[in-house]
Amino acid sequence: HPRELQVTAFLGFSIRSITELEAQMNAVERLIYYCEELPSEAQSVNNDYRPPPEWPSKGKIHAKNLRMRYRPGLEPSLNGVSMDINPTERIGVVGRTGAGKSSLAVALLRLVEPYEGTLEIDDVDALKLGLEDLRSKITIIPQDPVIFSGTLRFNLDPFDAHTDQELWETLEKSSMKEVVADSGDGLEMNIVEYGGNLSSGQQQLLCLARALLRRPKILIMDEATSNVDYETDQAVQSTVRREFADSTILTIAHRLWTIAD
């Protein structure tokens, strides 16, 4: 009968709707968790504790009994680290996989907050600073280059803080000027997603160029040349040696000649 068919169809529709609603409520539950329960980073700027405008002017790092874990319940990745790094020193960090080499960089940038100990940069408590004040003064060249889709100019200088002349000078120092000039588009050269139209060596040299523009007093090189060929490795090392003579450098690497350099 038509009425019985309508009732059956209605019941089927109701069951499907309830099932879909239940599945969608999982998404709502996750959103509530992200908004209300997930721990968030510290504030970008701590107005009650700002560094001097010229900070850091030396690049001195002092840590005492620094402990950090990636989440509660795990063993500490850094377990009571104490160190004094003087201005312009070059420090090599060597160890087996999982020893906590990269965790040291994570703690310095406060990507994960240390739960114990002290960390000072040029006698300023880095654990009290706003994250923008801290991270804007430390530059890291990571193992896996971070490349954005867009123009080369945007990848080098996303905040338009530098002139074209400064960008070209930086490209020359990082051995990328010829590649960019040959593209025909100059600084407007298009970079596809993840830097797909650049070789792995060129991607790493682009990250080096970013670091050169910022002229940081503290530079972290986290396995920066582990995925590039020997020639690119030598180009990076030569540029770092020449252009960052007044910076404190932490080099995390497996290759002994990188540390020895």
UniProtKB/TrEMBL annotation:
It is found in: Membrane. Keywords: ATP-binding, Membrane, Nucleotide-binding, Transmembrane, Transmembrane helix, Transport. Gene3D superfamilies: P-loop containing nucleotide triphosphate hydrolases. GO terms for cellular component: membrane. It comes from the Eukaryota. The keyword Transmembrane helix applies. The keyword Iron does not apply. Its main location: membrane. InterPro entries: AAA+_ATPase, ABC_transporter-like_ATP-bd, ABC_transporter-like_CS, ABC_transporter_C-like, P-loop_NTPase. It is a multi-pass membrane protein. Residues 61-259 form the ABC transporter domain. GO terms for molecular function: ATP binding; ATP hydrolysis activity; ATPase-coupled transmembrane transporter activity. It holds the Pfam family ABC_tran. PANTHER family: ATP-BINDING CASSETTE SUB-FAMILY C. This is Probable ATP-dependent transporter ycf16.
